[in-house]
Amino acid sequence: MSKTLETARLLLSEWSENNVALLARLSGDARVVRYIGTGERWSPETAAEVSRAALEHWQAQGFGWRVALERRSAEPVGFAALNFVGEGTSGLGAREVEIGWWLLPSAWGRGFASEAARAMCEEAFTRLGVPSIVARLQPENVASARVAKRIGMTHEFETTGRHGEDVAVYRLLASDWAASKVTR
Predict the structure, then answer these.
(1) What is the mean pLDDT of the chain?
(2) What is the CATH number of domain 5-183?
(3) Residue pLDDT, tens place only, 146-156
(4) What does pTM read for this prediction?
(5) What is the pLDDT of residue 156?
(6) Average pLDDT in the 29-34 region?
(7) What is the spatial distance between Cα 89 and Cα 57, in angstroms, rounded to a whole number?
(8) Confidence (pLDDT) at 91
(9) Which residues pair with 65 in a beta bridge?
(10) Residues 171-175: contacts with CB within 8 Å, 24+ apart?
């Protein structure tokens, strides 16, 4: 089990069964999922199934999704994630580590995604010791592309995702992360 990650404004806690309702809320909002997979909202049953898979990933791998709570209010604003890419994205290995973030629309534009993503990078490169992380973003998702660039990721290539969607792959090497920490 991993401790809660803390940033200036967020607490990032290990995913648990208690987070199903948050995932159902996020995945049921067309604004949130428009650039995820097929862009279709998820049913509550799908959200529960995906949440169970995220919990199983934690139990098996010792890392994964983290619910993002605003420190001041202790209210959830979304989640940040590290997980294996899995099968189905051309050009990426199934065991490469992917970073991601989903926020409630009320939390958009406040810097929470970048703040959570930086903490997840620190965990990926320091605690997990992975050589690199990737983000798979649909090209129209300019807000997430800005977050990826803000944390030091660079566009690597274009490909197709597991649902046939266009995907831009961004990557951050551990060595580049370490070098950026020196200049911060």
Answers:
(1) 95
(2) 3.40.630.30
(3) 999 999 999 99
(4) 0.94
(5) 97
(6) 97
(7) 19
(8) 94
(9) 81
(10) 171/132, 171/133, 171/134, 171/135, 172/99, 172/121, 172/132, 172/133, 172/134, 173/131, 173/132, 174/124, 174/125, 174/129, 174/130, 174/131, 174/132
Token output for 65:
């999704």
Mapping DSSP onto H, E and C, the string for the chain reads: CCCCEECCCEEEEECCHHHHHHHHHHHCCHHHHCCCCCCCCCCHHHHHHHHHHHHHHHHHHCCCEEEEEECCCCCEEEEEEEEECCCCCCCCCCCCEEEEEEECHHHCCCCHHHHHHHHHHHHHHHHCCCCEEEEEECCCCHHHHHHHHHCCCEEEEEEECCCCCEEEEEEEEHHHHHHHHHHC
